[in-house]
């Protein structure tokens, strides 16, 4: 089952990238960008509460990525790319009575993500972006459930074009990983993540519609 899910994931990611670069050959304004989330927060949750279970707390999040944007019209743009995210959480075990080992454990979850999002532009400076994430969990020593699957992203942002070819932007966002996990199991753990992207973009193609 895991091999089948991985094959499906690779096929989906390949299809997204192929479609993206095919669209890049069409007319329209495009941009490539690099971005960094130097600090963020993350935590673990389940859709169903677990009686007597342990708890997680935030230990920080970090992300770096490269993106591609294709403007559909003056209001909407399509976004994709490749991103690496490091989520850190601390696990505190449940209390079972004496004797009690209260020592917790830190867990690091490493993800590669391919976003497939839509960006709505409001004038020259403001935007909202949101959509799906195709996540691949590459964590070796696993404590949190596998996050490979489909996630979601929602963000707002401010952008500023300071030359004919370059712009910068700030993009606070909220993510949920493994919203639809590719691995089965009851009470599947999911990671939510908050952060702020700082990005630099290079524009090419037709003149900007901004």
Explain this structure.
The protein is mainly beta and 210 residues long. The chain is 10% helix and 59% strand. Strand 8 and strand 9 form a beta hairpin. It is elongated. The N and C termini lie far apart (47 Å).
Give the structure's gist in a few sentences.
It contains 1 helix and 9 strands, in the order H-E-E-E-E-E-E-E-E-E.
List the helices and strands and how they pair.
Blueprint lengths: L1 H22 L5 E9 L2 E6 L9 E17 L4 E17 L12 E18 L3 E12 L11 E13 L4 E16 L8 E16 L5
Antiparallel strand pairs: 1-3, 1-9, 2-9, 3-4, 4-5, 5-6, 6-7, 7-8, 8-9
Beta percentage is over 45%
Show unreliable segments: 20-25
Tertiary shape:
elongated
**Mean pLDDT across residues:** 85
Largest sheet: 8 strands, antiparallel, barrel
Kindly state the number of beta strands. 9
What multimeric state do the chains show? single chain
| Percent of residues in helices | 10-25%
Distance between the termini: 47 Å
Q: Count of helical segments?
A: 1
Entry keywords:
210 residues, mainly beta
